[in-house]
Amino acid sequence: MKSIVVANWKMNPPTFREAKKLFDATKKAAERCRDISLIIAPPAIYLHELSANYKGKRISFAVQNAHSEESGAQTGEISIAQARDAGAGYVLVGHSERRAVGETNDDTRKKVAAALSLKMTPVLCIGETSRSSSGEHFSIIAEQLLAGIRDVPPAKISKVIIAYEPVWAIGGETTMSPRDMHTMAIFIRKTVVGVYGDVGHKVTILYGASVGEQNATAMMRDGDVRGFIVGHVSTNAERFTALLQALKKES
Ligand code: PGA
Question: Which range marks the domain in which residue 104 is found?
Fold first, then answer.
């Protein structure tokens, strides 16, 4: 099975010209990695031009956020249908940086369902902002997870990607330990299986937060994940190429 790497460019780079350059470098790196499905989530304003000019198969596109309604009076928003029309096949839902500006668990529920109904793949991001020894983060994760998938019918649960992103580890150089991720992956799967039965085992789990060429292979080997969401390292062509190369050697 192919690994999945999502390049979450966030609000970068500042011009389309630079975005194109980054895309071209990323494309070159992706072409050398047959076993990796690469999903690029550029700023939405760059999406159409990048996707329309891409003729290959190895790269898919995502939006970093989208509204669950199909159309209407939502100033400043883009809909999932519009994202699809612009070339996206995936929608990030509930990224912690969206939750920090007000996205609720109920919003994520609507977005996950809307994405699936339009045959787009939702990438539901979940993660606690801090950890304490009491293990409270497991309840937060269960709450975010169960709310996000609440309207997903059993026949579609295998189409949902769950991205675990511990907020306290985002933006740095050190990931959570692969061992802790393994525990979290078991917890996530157990929670989904608790609702959906055995088909819940099919849910795809990614890890995100400070993934780079220096730590990705260990996480891939021992973290029980299918791949990653990569933030700041994905906007550095040299580092991102090194990361893909490191994963390639591993597979
Ligand atoms: P990071 O971001 O790789 O910069 O930690 C990951 C994310 O926020 O998706």
Answer: 3-250
